[in-house]
User: Which sequence fits this backbone?
């Protein structure tokens, strides 16, 4: 199976064209088919190999099998991976960018997206398209910070101490005079011819 025919902006060396083709625009306007069971990865692979054999193409070429695998999600459900890269490269890049941010899972839908990313990453134009979508998303999510307005810093205020009141007279405890001992009384005792003064 041949590689996808990528559309480039300025010929062979330009950036890949990300917008939809007329065919993709018409397909987007088609009413959805309703709820359809999501095929398992084994069923998608089996059907892709059978389509290659029906077209007398090599079903042993893994890249060809991926290209013939069919999308199991979204507005282009039922189209091959190869068709999606040729007609809706921007959508393919968006899915490939978003799926790497999802939690790993064994769900058929997640595996189908990862297989699309694997197929797209096999080509230089596909890798460039994913990088362009990633740069676009980062630019959109970058916050626009407002300009910081600086205000003049007010001078610090110095608290002035209030004048302390003059201390009043300190009351000193009055010294109580020691009681005056009563006067000693003298009494004379006569004993014999001698007088002895006895202090009471």
Assistant:
């Amino acid at each position: 199976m041949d590689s996808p025919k990528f559309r480039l902006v300025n010929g062979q060396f330009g950036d890949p064209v990300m917008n939809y083709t007329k065919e993709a625009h018409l397909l987007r306007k088609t009413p959805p088919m309703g709820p359809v069971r999501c095929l398992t990865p084994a069923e998608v692979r089996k059907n892709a190999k059978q389509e290659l054999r029906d077209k007398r193409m090599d079903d042993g070429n893994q890249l060809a099998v991926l290209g013939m695998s069919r999308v199991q999600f979204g507005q282009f459900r039922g189209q091959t991976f190869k068709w999606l890269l040729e007609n809706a490269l921007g959508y393919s890049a968006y899915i490939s960018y978003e799926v790497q941010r999802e939690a790993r899972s064994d769900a058929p839908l997640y595996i189908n997206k990862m297989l699309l990313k694997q197929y797209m990453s096999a080509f230089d134009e596909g890798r460039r398209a994913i990088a362009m979508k990633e740069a676009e998303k980062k630019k959109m999510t970058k916050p626009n910070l407002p300009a910081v307005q600086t205000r003049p810093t007010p001078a610090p205020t110095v608290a002035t101490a209030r004048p302390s009141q003059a201390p009043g007279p300190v009351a000193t405890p009055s010294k109580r005079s020691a009681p005056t001992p009563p006067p000693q009384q003298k009494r004379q005792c006569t004993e014999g011819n001698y007088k002895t003064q006895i202090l009471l």
